[in-house]
TrEMBL record:
<feature type="transmembrane region" description="Helical">
    <location>
        <begin position="55"/>
        <end position="76"/>
    </location>
</feature>
<dbReference type="InterPro" id="IPR012171">
    <property type="entry name" value="Fatty_acid_desaturase"/>
</dbReference>
<keyword id="KW-1133">Transmembrane helix</keyword>
<dbReference type="Pfam" id="PF00487">
    <property type="entry name" value="FA_desaturase"/>
</dbReference>
<feature type="domain" description="Fatty acid desaturase">
    <location>
        <begin position="56"/>
        <end position="300"/>
    </location>
</feature>
<keyword id="KW-0472">Membrane</keyword>
<protein>
    <submittedName>
        <fullName>Fatty acid desaturase</fullName>
    </submittedName>
</protein>
<feature type="transmembrane region" description="Helical">
    <location>
        <begin position="186"/>
        <end position="205"/>
    </location>
</feature>
<feature type="transmembrane region" description="Helical">
    <location>
        <begin position="30"/>
        <end position="49"/>
    </location>
</feature>
<dbReference type="InterPro" id="IPR005804">
    <property type="entry name" value="FA_desaturase_dom"/>
</dbReference>
<dbReference type="GO" id="GO:0016020">
    <property type="term" value="C:membrane"/>
</dbReference>
<keyword id="KW-0812">Transmembrane</keyword>
<dbReference type="GO" id="GO:0016717">
    <property type="term" value="F:oxidoreductase activity, acting on paired donors, with oxidation of a pair of donors resulting in the reduction of molecular oxygen to two molecules of water"/>
</dbReference>
<dbReference type="GO" id="GO:0008610">
    <property type="term" value="P:lipid biosynthetic process"/>
</dbReference>
<feature type="transmembrane region" description="Helical">
    <location>
        <begin position="144"/>
        <end position="165"/>
    </location>
</feature>
<feature type="transmembrane region" description="Helical">
    <location>
        <begin position="211"/>
        <end position="230"/>
    </location>
</feature>
């Protein structure tokens, strides 16, 4: 693996070439959020108050799911402090934006801002990092999962994208609640409960049939969109001891109109270099990165990244490789031999390693 540098090292070199206004909050981003909020309310009222052909409910559900996802992207930006700076207003607006995804602002900042961003792709400390080969021997469930052929695992993994964000958010709630100051835990609990009270209240009001189109299906669609990005953010990259965004993060490319609708969420390496800068300015950050370190920078079309995810396993081996225990084969990671256009695997390097692998698989 190439020499690694911290995100601060890169940011320090790029910052002088960015305009001063890039470091100011951009409250104008809220206009986009207002548009999505109005679309969401209109969609919910249309399904809730009108009795029309269910095919129209389906169309509205798709629009609602896209709006839920886009509000989540804006909420992510808001809670990084790049839209407004006042803490109470930041958390209030972030709570509204994340309401459909049922994630509270305090939990998100603890999990995402203070842990994931600080320990990105660290195999022990990043709550979003995928497991290592060493953890396989310690988990009967993982051993069962990774006995399945890669194609079957990939199929179910992609299907699970429709629930992964919500499921992981619930897991993070149980993990981090105890780490909050006891005086702040009631607020964290309220932020977690209130959105669900809203959606369960909606179920009581409209019944299960309409609720499916008003919340459940849109939530699945939103999960799928959000996880389409999140699954490509780091899962093809190596784990790293040093938090080097050019090594451990991937920027995907999508059509410009999609970037507009999704608040430039595709610029993920740029986000990890400057999480306190509005994504409005990430194209400028990208220009500076590619000017200085083009050989280190990882980007690819979203479709290519998803195909590469399908064809590679999600279990890390010695940080820079991905291992498929069902066959005992290795794949490179980005910057370490993985060519998304020609994905190749290889056998384990040594007899000792193979023996260790076989012994663990047999347990």
């Amino acid at each position: 693996m190439k020499d690694l540098h911290s995100f601060g090292w890169y940011a320090g070199k790029i910052k002088p070439d960015l305009p001063n206004e890039a470091f100011d909050p951009v409250p104008a981003r809220l206009w986009g959020g207002l548009a999505y909020l109005l679309v969401t309310i209109a969609g919910l009222l249309t399904i809730g108050l009108l009795s029309i052909n269910p095919i129209f409910y389906l169309g509205i559900s798709i629009i609602l799911g896209c709006s839920f996802a886009a509000l989540g992207f804006l909420g992510h930006e808001i809670l990084h402090g790049t839209v407004v700076r006042k803490p109470w207003l930041r958390d209030f607006l972030g709570a509204i934006a994340f309401w459909p995804l049922t994630t509270g602002p305090r939990l998100w900042r603890k999990w995402h801002n203070l842990t994931h961003h600080v320990h990105t792709q660290h195999e022990e400390h990043d709550p979003d990092a995928w497991p290592t080969f060493e953890k396989l021997a310690k988990s009967r469930f993982l051993r069962w999962i990774y006995r399945l052929p890669l194609g079957i695992r990939a199929f179910f993994s992609f299907c699970s994208l429709s629930i992964q964000f919500s499921a992981h958010s619930m897991k993070m709630f149980t993990v981090y609640l105890k780490e909050f100051n006891p005086k702040k835990r009631p607020a964290v609990l309220i932020e977690a409960i209130l959105p669900w009270m809203t959606w369960i209240g909606l179920l009581v009001w409209v019944g299960p049939f309409k609720w499916f189109f008003m919340f459940l299906l849109p939530l699945l669609i939103a999960n799928l969109i959000v996880m389409g990005y999140i699954s490509t953010n780091h899962r093809l990259n190596p784990t790293t001891e040093v938090n080097d965004p050019l090594a451990n993060s991937l920027t995907v490319t999508v059509p410009k109109w999609v970037d507009f609708l999704h608040f430039n969420f595709s610029y993920h390496t740029e986000h990890h270099l400057f999480p306190g800068v509005s994504s409005k300015y990430y194209p400028l950050v990208k220009e500076q990165i590619k000017k200085r370190w083009p050989e280190r920078y990882h980007e690819m079309p979203m479709g290519s990244a998803l195909v590469a995810l399908w064809k590679t396993p999600r279990l890390y081996y010695q940080q820079s490789e991905l291992i498929d225990p069902s066959k005992g084969t290795l794949f490179g990671s980005l910057g370490n031999g993985l060519d998304p256009k020609n994905i190749q695997s290889k056998g384990l390097d040594t007899l000792d390693t193979l023996k260790a692998f076989q012994e663990r698989k047999a347990k």
